[in-house]
């Protein structure tokens, strides 16, 4: 995918999709800045990369804070000699419950992390990525349909797709691209799955069941494609990665 020698920043890179993306980017020859609100998690993934001969730096940061976004982009640029790619993956767990019982504080938290965070990150990426660079933001299948029991999360993720589409022109004006990925159910620590600190050759991933659960690496592979020159003609788009979850309604009886 012609990613060798590139420098990439990954938020939420200490676990789940972000960790898989960081590990795969390292395999492809990228230098990494791994950002996570839990610095210990970022340090663990960075150590795995450096132990295998790669180059990675771990940075603590809260994506919902403007000052933190500016700081961790500064630190990444300084450590890696500039930035080509940004995978803005960090997000908050979706809390389930009836629409009218969600607290205002919880709604504000969903917006702060899942929408304000990507906006702040994209502002920095637009200003700093080198010519030919790309940014990818993790949205959700909830960005393209309503999750009735996760109204705040759904609203924020819908906003992410709108943000990416609106930003595409300005990114293009600087020779950059921006896209979103919209995963369906993924086996990550955010939903209680065990963290996987390894990746495999993409040809060995297999195919998930229809409307089935995805591995973090399956989603990460799509992010890598969108970050790569192979996706040069793709800008301002939202790519579903959902094993056909939203492909048809109603689902087959055994899936209901």
From TrEMBL:
The keyword Oxidoreductase applies. Keywords: Oxidoreductase. The keyword Lipid biosynthesis does not apply. It is an enzyme of class 1 (oxidoreductase). InterPro entries: NAD(P)-bd_dom_sf, Sc_DH/Rdtase_CS, SDR_fam. Signal peptide: none annotated. Pfam families: adh_short_C2 (PF13561). Its EC number is 1.1.1.-. One of its GO terms (molecular function) is oxidoreductase activity. Belongs to the short-chain dehydrogenases/reductases (SDR) family. This is SDR family NAD(P)-dependent oxidoreductase. It comes from Sphingobium tyrosinilyticum.
């Amino acid at each position: 995918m012609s990613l060798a020698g590139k420098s990439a920043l990954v938020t939420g890179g200490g676990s789940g999709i972000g960790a898989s993306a960081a590990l795969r980017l390292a395999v492809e020859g990228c230098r990494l800045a791994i950002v996570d609100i839990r610095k210990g998690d970022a340090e663990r993934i960075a150590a795995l990369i450096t132990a295998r001969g790669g180059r990675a730096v771990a940075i603590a940061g809260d994506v919902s804070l403007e000052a933190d976004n500016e700081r961790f982009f500064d630190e990444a640029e300084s450590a890696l000699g500039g930035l080509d790619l940004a995978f803005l993956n960090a997000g908050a767990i979706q809390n389930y419950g009836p629409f009218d019982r969600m607290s205002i504080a919880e709604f504000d938290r969903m917006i702060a992390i899942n929408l304000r965070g990507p906006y702040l990150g994209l502002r920095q990426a637009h200003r700093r990525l080198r010519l030919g660079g790309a940014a990818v933001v993790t949205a959700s299948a909830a960005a393209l349909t309503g999750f009735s029991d996760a109204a705040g999360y759904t609203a924020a993720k819908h906003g992410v797709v709108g943000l990416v589409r609106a930003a595409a022109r300005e990114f293009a004006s600087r020779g950059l691209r921006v896209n979103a990925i919209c995963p369906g159910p993924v086996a990550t620590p955010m939903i209680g799955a065990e963290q996987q600190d390894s990746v495999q050759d993409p040809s060995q991933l297999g195919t998930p069941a229809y409307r089935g659960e995805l591995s973090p690496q399956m989603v990460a592979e799509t992010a890598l494609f969108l970050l790569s020159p192979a996706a040069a003609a793709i800008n301002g788009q939202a790519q579903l990665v959902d094993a056909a979850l939203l492909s048809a309604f109603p689902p087959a009886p055994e899936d209901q």
